[in-house]
Amino acid sequence: xxxxxxxxxxxxxxxxxxxxxxxxxxxxxxxxxxxxxxxxxxxxxxxxxxxxxxxxxxxxxxxxxxxxxxxxxxxxxxxxxxxxxxxxxxxxxxxxxxxxxxxxxxxxxxxxxxxxxxxxxxxxxxxxxxxxxxxxxxxxxxxxxxxxxxxxxxxxxxxxxxxxxxxxxxxxxxxxxxxxxxxxxxxxxxxxxxxxxxxxxxxxxxxxxxxxxxxxxxxxxxxxxxxxxxxxxxxxxxxxxxxxxxxxxxxxxxxx
Amino acid sequence: xxxxxxxxxxxxxxxxxxxxxxxxxxxxxxxxxxxxxxxxxxxxxxxxxxxxxxxxxxxxxxxxxxxxxxxxxxxxxxxxxxxxxxxxxxxxxxxxxxxxxxxxxxxxxxxxxxxxxxxxxxxxxxxxxxxxxxxxxxxxxxxxxxxxxxxxxxxxxxxxxxxxxxxxxxxxxxxxxxxxxxxxxxxxxxxxxxxxxxxxxxxxxxxxxxxxxxxxxxxxxxxxxxxxxxxxxxxxxxxxxxxxxxxxxxxxxxxx
Amino acid sequence: xxxxxxxxxxxxxxxxxxxxxxxxxxxxxxxxxxxxxxxxxxxxxxxxxxxxxxxxxxxxxxxxxxxxxxxxxxxxxxxxxxxxxxxxxxxxxxxxxxxxxxxxxxxxxxxxxxxxxxxxxxxxxxxxxxxxxxxxxxxxxxxxxxxxxxxxxxxxxxxxxxxxxxxxxxxxxxxxxxxxxxxxxxxxxxxxxxxxxxxxxxxxxxxxxxxxxxxxxxxxxxxxxxxxxxxxxxxxxxxxxxxxxxxxxxxxxxxx
Amino acid sequence: xxxxxxxxxxxxxxxxxxxxxxxxxxxxxxxxxxxxxxxxxxxxxxxxxxxxxxxxxxxxxxxxxxxxxxxxxxxxxxxxxxxxxxxxxxxxxxxxxxxxxxxxxxxxxxxxxxxxxxxxxxxxxxxxxxxxxxxxxxxxxxxxxxxxxxxxxxxxxxxxxxxxxxxxxxxxxxxxxxxxxxxxxxxxxxxxxxxxxxxxxxxxxxxxxxxxxxxxxxxxxxxxxxxxxxxxxxxxxxxxxxxxxxxxxxxxxxxx
Amino acid sequence: xxxxxxxxxxxxxxxxxxxxxxxxxxxxxxxxxxxxxxxxxxxxxxxxxxxxxxxxxxxxxxxxxxxxxxxxxxxxxxxxxxxxxxxxxxxxxxxxxxxxxxxxxxxxxxxxxxxxxxxxxxxxxxxxxxxxxxxxxxxxxxxxxxxxxxxxxxxxxxxxxxxxxxxxxxxxxxxxxxxxxxxxxxxxxxxxxxxxxxxxxxxxxxxxxxxxxxxxxxxxxxxxxxxxxxxxxxxxxxxxxxxxxxxxxxxxxxxx
Amino acid sequence: xxxxxxxxxxxxxxxxxxxxxxxxxxxxxxxxxxxxxxxxxxxxxxxxxxxxxxxxxxxxxxxxxxxxxxxxxxxxxxxxxxxxxxxxxxxxxxxxxxxxxxxxxxxxxxxxxxxxxxxxxxxxxxxxxxxxxxxxxxxxxxxxxxxxxxxxxxxxxxxxxxxxxxxxxxxxxxxxxxxxxxxxxxxxxxxxxxxxxxxxxxxxxxxxxxxxxxxxxxxxxxxxxxxxxxxxxxxxxxxxxxxxxxxxxxxxxxxx
Lengths: 256, 256, 256, 256, 256, 256
What we know:
Six copies of one chain form a homohexamer.
Chain A: H1 12-17, E1 20-25, H2 39-55, E2 58-59, H3 82-96, E3 103-108, H4 114-126, E4 131-135, H5 137-140, H6 142-148, H7 158-167, H8 177-183, H9 188-191, E5 194-195, E6 198-199, H10 221-244, H11 247-250
Parallel strand pairs in A: 1-2, 1-3, 3-4
Antiparallel strand pairs in A: 5-6
């Protein structure tokens, strides 16, 4: 069920019977010459809505702008500073609990949001307010991702390309896939992000000219569909698992 | 132009030539038994995208959750606390200036956001970072609103109903319009929001049973279209006016 | 009773028997060529003390500097940024509850403070700490204000002029009333504060040369007295109404 | 010159010619059974206004409520938490610099405000925004204070009593001076505030029954006048000294 | 050179000639039944001091308590909340730049600090204040770590055990190594930290009984020495590389 | 017992039986040409560890960098801004209470930390979280300090010199003691820190050329030992006294 489409009386039963919410979060940031800036929030929204439809769990509207300062050198990247993002998401989540929600899945499609969602989730759990966890689709099906692509990216690479080819083909510049590959960096290793054990890079512009990695020509809408189906299934299972837990079991352990 | 659909190289020309951005903001909150919780952000998004299409100015993705704590007693209302909202919007806006944006129209469809957008805009202007102003569609065509409806609401009333009937008819429960009217409050005056000069109410639940005001049966999709056209025209003019100004003229006056 | 004049043992009975406090707040900011910068806090203090005397409710000392950044271009305007004001007032109010106060009237005479007092009051109520509401004298007697003046201002206009003529005649430059009128702006409408539905102004200096609006020559001390008496009566009634309420009835409604 | 009484055009010359402001700050807190809660802010205001009158320097309205949480157990004590106080004073001071003020004397009559005024002043100086220093009247004439009283208090003791007897005799309960003495603590030493080198007390209620120290019967209005004259003279000199300094000389030294 | 041991005049030459500082950071938290709670800050300090000795670069005192809330269920774990940690480290680092430092290596031995050091470093770089990067010894020699141990842990595992056996043998309970292994979890995989792509654990107590992972009996002081030598060499190279860079080259790239 | 050296199971008994922790805090800042920058944290650590050894109370690792911005003009002074220091210490202390600690002695050797530790302690006590008090060694034995030295400093003077001569003789430049004295300021009075009752100085560099006060040639390791023994004894007694108190008796008094 999508919260945004419902009138308030029609939500009463849900909150009486269920306590889980799915919150999609993404980013609006450069994804190379071939993909739209909305890529991450479109992917997050697609998974969240799909799984809400399949399972009946409640899906909220999407947080469209996240922590993307590291992509700022490319036209159009939007971002908020980390404390603003954390406060916004924490406040939004705390307030969901007013309606009886006590477990939340952040369906997130932007790596830059992860540590901040983890921090928010840890805080909410430590305060015993809610159990909120983040989910990234590619983390749920690592073997399939590896199997489908030689160089999966990550950022703006073939796996994200395939996903948008499947979900929003009209937004992909298919004629620029080779350009994307040739103007980018083959892999994280090639990007040279570490020196002597230290992550010496901060921005995507530090080591890529066009902002993306991997071989985009390896992407197809069919692969996108396969990924979407497989990861959606994982998210369904996560929601079901979460729903089955007793709230007390989701809360922190006692002091030893 | 909608930023979310563009790949970064395709935005270069815009930022070279223009410095205006349209940022839609709304809320996700109860709008009575007949309207969807997304009402405000759907309206904001519709105006922002329409005017971006007509004028070519850049429209960003929408901020879907705003300051709606005063509607929290009704199922499904989502909200963030005011400081979180201000920080999020201020950070998002400051960062737009990194690409050369120096004037922003917050296309806002939720009254509860207004003082906070004003505070953010005042801060950004005082710091000479950007000139950001908020726009509410109904404020731009007050005479037409008054002419079309006897009791326009405001919250969840006929003017918002008509707008969603026009924009997203499938999301309106047309069979509940009389219920909405009969279970709500005819007008702000009837709501008794003031006592001896003091605004003594804080929450919608303080003076309405179903969260809405006005006579919803007075709404039609045709009226919605008329409102949408008229207000869009106003927003077009606002953007054009704003674009014509010199940045220095938008900045604060000197000390006398 | 005025808290500032009392020794602590003499307050014991009050706190045992009553739970209401009156907190005056104003500003120190330009009020045109004819009125003192203290105008707003003098008016707030006068109402608060008068009503405390008439009713026996407790009045605290005055918060003299408020949110007046929009008047900063005129010599001598003092102000604090909105977050500092909110924190100061919220902390002061929370701490009053330590003595048993659970309802507060902010007798406020500066429009720029209003959204911030509303935000503080909403927070305190949501936390079930106290019920604090703001009161503006002119909001309590709108018909009388309209009746007495053709163009009442608002800022530095005849209604504020009349009030200071009555309360502190020595602080009014009566010989500058025509100058004030001629160098200012007749009305808010003439000030052109809106464009196409957007409030495009932020500072008083954006649309007035001398900082004030309305026809100051229309003011007299007699009108000031009439206004003061009428609004004081309203404030008395507000305090009495507030005192009669059960605390639970002042707190937020339950979730529907 | 008192800023609150002036119309803005009459302040122009001052800001052109001078750059010093006197800001009075006090507290509203218990001062024993014999003195009013306003004691500290009345004293601060009296010194600030007097010296402004004598010298022509600009005096602002008073900050009436300060950091007094340590007196909260006694009826009527008002206070704000330290961060709120610092933010309020810092913001107020920074904004004074907009008019050309670059040196500020905080005429403070409450010991509990001192470390916070020092912190604010250090910050403003480190940022090279302003040179703001705090002044306590009794610190300026320690020998005279010692000479006039055997046990001067400090809090609510004979030196503060004498000051209010002189400035506001109607607010002193002269018939309770012996009660104040007998129900209080003779001296800081007697209060036992330290144990083995650690300040083990936090609140006035930890070691006094009525909130005050010293022998209040030793106070007279004549002593109050003598103290007021002597300390006013010191404050005049401080302002004159400060006025004579070059701004650069008031700013921090360079790195060695 | 160790800053703590020097008198200020003896540091003048360093700051004239160099602009690099090494800042050790660790944690004070449970490291199983066999290792001291100081483990992480002892390791960080050892590397930082050793490399400062070898190279002559400046090493500061150690930040001993970090972000370890996820180990709180075990006796003695100390921690600060993430915002406090970030503010403390950011302030400390910004202030180092006052002496001319513009590049900092955070020699960090606690994984829980990493995202926060990255956030601080990104902020400082975005503000063009300093280039600060974090270094973890095990990240610099992944192959050697893998070669020496079958199951390296990470937390409280054989690689940390070996390191303390080498650096502070008196602090290791060698008689508890088998207990540590048997009461803990063999590997991160065995700990079951993920479900369907989501990291579902927050605390060490969620999936370990004694707080540690890996086979501690595989550790020896000799292996510790080998690791220490190898990683020290990497840190030396990192410092040398960093020292060679032009400051401008360390700062963010321009907008494309 | 030193927490850092213990494995977590070995702390269980302590937390079952005791509720007191000793937390050493100092600074890293210039202490003249003869003393190391670590002076204050070395002294704090020495007292804290010694007394922990003598009494069995738990001592934590040291907070090495404090509020020392007023020494920043001298090479190598490290510092954090006051809010960062307070947050760090408050968070660290609150989290100690998770293990059952409810009383804390901040063994502090840096005057600049004192008001901030007092503020943190007052907050924790007001919240009834813990009773935390600061202890400065020299405050515990004022008579002995006065007896041993004509001019004890304070900063970088003979009492601190003697202490480091005793604790870490290798870190004292004994050949620079006369230089320290001759290039510094004999006493606080000579430093001219006050003008007409106002503390007009903010930085050590405002009134000393080499950063120190007093006659350093008066220091010997023997005097250092005598001071250390005497003050350690005081700290032992403080801990014992604190341990004997009922927690309720350490908490704030009720409202009168």
